[in-house]
Amino acid sequence: MVKARKYVVNKHFQGVPKREDFDIVEYELPNIKNGEILVKVEWVSVDPYMRAYNSKYKPPYDQFGYQVAVVEDSKDPRYPVGTKVVSHSGWCDYSIIDLNGKDAADGQVYKLPDLKGLSESYGVGCVGMHGVTAYLGFLEICQPKAGETVVVTGAAGAVGSIVGQIAKIKGCRVIGFAGDDAKVEWLKEIGFDAAINYKTADVAAALKEAAPKGVDCYFDNVGGELSSTILYQMNDFGRVAVCGSISAYNDTGLPQAIILQPAIVTHQLKIEGFLVWRWLHRFPEALAELIKWIHSGQLKPREHVTEGFENIYDAFIGMLNGENVGKAVVKL
Asked: Model-level pTM greater than 0.85?
């Protein structure tokens, strides 16, 4: 028997998630059965969607999330002991994964790709779901063309920072919005043509100065008034990929924002939301390309690392408060 720990959400969040909204439960795992593996977790991801999807589940529930783990016991020959695995098994230090179960069928359990010497933590970030979200969400929906102007909000985060760098690889001019001056400077360091602190700038004026000929593609991670302002500066037939709305995740009521329809109609915009799982069959292609770009130096990932199982909650809240630059991960 293996003693394990996990975070269990005991009630729906009201505003910012509180420590008392979680219980850390200690329990013993049973012996594994045929088709199962026992894994020891090494890296855990903390992400905005964990806040956004809280209301979709009935408490108590195990906190979901991506992890990189190593197989310690196996009753499936495809996953021998020592195999590194990426799964959606959540905030825990050990887990049993049923390789014939729903998560495996949905593609949310797979072997960690050959990272060719890169940190294995990348498996829950730039070479995981977040990197694929940036790669396919941006390229498939925005269909960028060399010379076009691209705007990214949440640009210093896990997805936004990758989107901006992919846009540069594709020959675009890229403008990023972030929430403090240090993040703005980092975005310029990794190749953004302009970066704007939305908390201190006159957003409309700053964007007009950075993109005097208008915006062709917009990758939206934040929603709210910032996104509404950007839509009013888009060019005809502009394309918008809507990935998230982190600006409102902790709000208890509907946020107020500028009406969007005049901009959408006048500029004949294409606005499309997406979940990355629609392209599940293309994950290997995306991961291979991301690994190639990182090794070539065209893509420069950054991580915000917190250590310790007991500090996962703090890492989660810090990420929601914008304390991370790049991908927020926890090393167990």
From this structure: yes
